[in-house]
């Protein structure tokens, strides 16, 4: 748990001194917690550190605790993401209309920012639809549309993976095994855009 706290703190750009002050602890004590020299023995301590870092208790523990509404909301976004990854394929057009690529790219970038700031419930909300609609553009769009959709799809997949990793849930098992490899291959050469139909 200390390693998670350190990772979140550094990712958010919070100094050890600032985090310790916000949590109501000394800098040396928080350092010992982060390095595993001391244990998180009280739920109140976990809650104080989570609040100081601007994340949920579940972000630190990897597990939902009773009464952790933020964690429950974040975890509730995962089934939609998993279904989108499972149902979307680069050889088959997903059913339904798709919003414009630029709008979907903005949503993927916003979700990535939210994920980077440990706001997993916000990052995951609607991400399944974004993934599905971006797949539609990758399969059906012209070369420019496909390129932009692929960039956004890659970013959205990273958010999906980051959200799942925060809960130690292997969402990537739901994605077709060759999905990430094919995304990478498609992005390498312009010729692959023409041949991939």
Brief sketch in words of this structure:
The protein is an all-alpha fold.
Structural class estimated from helices and strands: mainly alpha
Detail the poorly predicted runs.
170-178, 189-197
Major pleated sheet: none
Reading the helices and strands in chain order gives HHHHHHHHHHHHH
Average pLDDT works out at 80
Give the strand tally.
0
Distance between the termini: 46 Å
Fraction in beta strands? under 5%
CA gyration radius, whole angstroms: 19 Å
Helix content: 55-70%
How many domains is the backbone divided into? Answer: 2
So what's the overall shape?
elongated
Number of helices: 13
Note the main attributes of this structure.
single chain, mainly alpha, disordered C terminus, elongated, 197 residues, 434 Repressor (Amino-terminal Domain)
Kindly describe this structure:
It is a single chain. With 197 residues, the chain is mainly alpha-helical. The protein folds into two domains: 2-67, lambda repressor-like DNA-binding domains (434 Repressor (Amino-terminal Domain), Orthogonal Bundle), CATH 1.10.260.40; 77-195, no CATH class. The protein contains 13 helices and no strands. This is HTH cro/C1-type domain-containing protein. InterPro entries: Cro/C1-type_HTH (IPR001387), Lambda_DNA-bd_dom_sf (IPR010982). GO terms for molecular function: DNA binding. Residues 8-60 form the HTH cro/C1-type domain.
